[in-house]
Structures are given as C-alpha cells and as structure tokens.
Write a structure and sequence with these properties.
- Keywords: Methyltransferase, Transferase.
- It comes from Microbacterium invictum.
- This is 16S rRNA (Guanine1207-N2)-methyltransferase.
- One of its GO terms (molecular function) is 16S rRNA (guanine(1207)-N(2))-methyltransferase activity.
- It is built from eleven helices and 18 strands.
- By secondary structure, the chain is an alpha/beta fold.
- The protein has two domains: about 170 residues, 3-Layer(aba) Sandwich (Rossmann fold); about 180 residues, Vaccinia Virus protein VP39 (Rossmann fold), CATH 3.40.50.
- The strands form four sheets. The protein has a seven-stranded mixed beta sheet with strand order 3-2-1-4-5-7-6, sandwiched between helices. Strands 12-11-10-13-16-18-17 form a seven-stranded mixed beta sheet, with helices on both faces.
- Helix 3 links the parallel strand 2 and strand 3.
- Helix 5 packs parallel to helix 6.
- About 50% of the residues are buried.
C-alpha cells in the first residue's frame, strides 16, 4: 500500500527506538487481506488490536469508509484518533467497545493476535456470533509471539484455518466459516475472601499475581485519604484486586481504580460487584490519571507494567511516576511494587520524594514514596 506508515505516531504512548507504531505483521496482514478488503465495501471491515492505527488508517486511505475499530489500550485508541486527524481520515474510522456492535455483519476482520489465548477466544467467539456468515478473519502477528495453540482456538469457532507463509518474521492465520459463536465471558477466581473476575486479556487472569500479592501483604492498615473527594487510588488496577482489597478492609472508604486496558476495566468492575463494593469503587479507563486534579490524592497504590505490546520497556513506569508526582498532594504516599532488577528506587526518589524499601523477595520490591 502507498500509505505513509512512517508518519504514524505512538502519542500519547511511550516512544523510542524499540517502540514502533507499525511493524512487518501489520504490512503482511494488509497484503494478505488486500483482495478481500477491496470487496468488503463501506461498513464491512472491522479491525481489532490495531496498535496505533496502521491497519485502520491504511484501509481508510484506500477510500473505504466506516471502518470499525477496537483497541484494548486507551492509549492506542487516542493515538488512532490523533493519527486519523493528521491524515484527514477521522470520518472514515470509529472506535467501539469489544461487543456485538463492533462486528455485526462484518465481512472482513483484521486482527492483531493477542498474546493471551483467553483474549483470542473472547474475540473469535464474538466474531463467530455476530459477523456475516461469509466473514474472513486475517489474524496476524510476529512469529515469536505466535503458538500452534492459537490455531486451535480459532478452530473452536471457524471451519477452516489456513496458515500463510512467513515473511519478515511474521505470519497470518486466515479463518473462515464461523460457528458456535458466543459473547466474552469473565472467569471467576477466589483468594481468601477476595473474589476476582477476569475477561480474556486481563493481566494475571482471575488470580493474584505474585507482585500484587506481596503489595497487599504490606499495605498500611490505616492509609491516608479514603473520602469521596480524596479516594484511595489503585493505579493500573488490572482486575481490581488492590481496589477490592482496600474497599473490603475499609468499609466506609472510597476507592478510585483506573487502567488503560478495556479488558482490565471490564474485569475490575465485575470484581467490585462480586465483592459487594461497587457502590464505593469507581473504575475508569484512562491514560495515566488524566481525570484526577493536581495535588488531589493522599494515597496511590501502583504495580507498573513493563510491557508495551511485545516490547519490554521501563518508559511506561517513568510516565506513571511523573503522573503520581502530579496527583499526590505534599505528604501523600505512593506504595509501589516492582520487579527488583528494574531498580526503580532512585527514580522514585528523584520524581516523587523520599523512598524507603518496605519489603523484598527474590523477584519483587515494595517501596513507599512520600511526596515532597
């Protein structure tokens, strides 16, 4: 395609030499789907998992209109909107939640394969339930992240799954003949008194990851804040384990939970309902803490991610620490758990204030930082 891929930006997401807005898998998916896209017509194309708009905008660039798009990360959604405006293609694309309206009647679906098989199962089931009977799914990714199990998941919902030749360390799976479709279903788990719910793609699923478990073991018994105007903040909340734990421990207090991932936010909301605390926990999908005022919080808990797509990076944590410094009031506390080899303590001290180690095991470190 003649689309100017190199002009795509990852903003507002972190960027760098190892963090790209388009890769060889995007190009291969478009090439394999070229004939099907030409025949799909306006409103017939759906794109799922488009990182920053490479797939969606390349299609819109050819003249196709009403391209429906779902991206799990709100940063990707905002990058798509910004890139679409830059290219003059905003009217041609629209972002939708992962639900029936996204795929209703679709004839072609382009999919960047998620790393999670449960996420792929949720997506494939939804397509099979609501897309057109003649839908063709072009599901691609980088070879190092693809497994034969992905083919098996697609075969649960499609009659045939063909595999293309590899190119530039990427490959595409082509699925046709939808059957046995279903809506995404949250799995359930329990850890002590804590109920957990998780849709496919939510980090750690319906269980406590070991970092969060360590953080919960050392959270203060009387953290500051907790009022409606100054709630405890569970930053990068995932399935909402920390938010639910704090709300259960402090039955008169309010909690604010936020995550960039649509799957995480949907999971966290169900986790709150399952624990009977939904009336005191607000869960939002947001980039960082953009909805929170400056110097407005007394207590933030954070387990920062260190993956952006497939890339391992510390740039996500840097953005988060900067945001914590903005939102914490003087004397406010950040309780953070992080992979010990990442050595965040100096950065936390420089960005937020005095930082002390609370706990450490073979893999994770818990720190308390007090806003200067």
């Amino acid at each position: 395609m003649s689309f100017a891929f190199d002009e795509l930006s990852r903003w507002p997401d972190a960027s760098g030499p190892d963090l790209v807005a388009v890769d060889s898998a995007d190009r291969l998916i478009l090439d394999e789907a070229d004939a099907a896209l030409a025949a799909a017509g306006d409103g017939g194309v759906v794109v799922i998992g488009d990182g920053y708009g490479a797939l969606s905008l390349a299609i819109a660039h050819t003249g196709t209109r009403d391209v429906r798009v779902h991206q799990d990360a709100v940063t990707g959604e905002r990058a798509l909107a910004a890139n679409a405006e830059r290219f003059g293609l905003s009217p041609a694309v629209r972002s939708l939640p992962l639900g029936p309206a996204l795929v209703e009647g679709a004839r072609v679906v382009l999919l960047r394969l998620p790393r999670s098989l449960d996420a792929l199962r949720d997506i494939a089931g939804l397509i099979a339930a609501h897309a057109a009977p003649d839908v063709t799914v072009f599901a691609g990714g980088r070879l190092k992240y693809m497994t034969p199990a992905m083919n098996d998941v697609l075969r649960e919902f499609f009659d045939t799954v063909d595999v293309t030749l590899a190119r530039q360390k990427s490959r595409v799976l082509i699925a046709r003949g939808p059957h046995d479709g279903r809506e995404p279903v949250a799995t359930a788990g329990r850890d002590g008194i804590l109920e957990l719910r998780a849709y496919g793609g939510a980090f750690a699923g319906a269980r406590l990851d070991i970092g969060t478990r360590l953080l919960l073991a050392y959270l203060p018994h009387r953290p500051p804040g907790g009022t409606a105007d100054d709630p405890f903040i569970d930053f990068a909340c995932g399935t909402g384990a920390v938010a639910a734990h704090v709300a259960l421990r402090h039955p008169s207090h309010f909690v604010y939970a936020t995550d960039t991932s649509a799957a995480a936010v949907a999971s966290a909301r169900e986790t709150m309902v399952a624990n009977g605390v939904a009336d005191r926990v607000t869960v939002v999908r947001d980039d960082l803490l953009s909805r929170r005022p400056d110097a407005s919080a007394s207590f933030i808990a954070l387990n920062p991610p260190f993956h952006s797509g497939g890339a391992v990076t510390d740039r996500l944590a840097t953005r988060m620490f900067d945001e914590v410094a903005r939102v914490l009031r003087p004397g406010g506390e950040l309780w953070c758990v992080w992979n010990s080899p990442l050595h965040y303590r100096t950065e936390l001290a420089d960005t937020i204030g005095i930082t002390v180690q609370i706990a450490r095991n073979a893999k994770f470190t818990v720190t308390q930082s007090t806003r200067a």
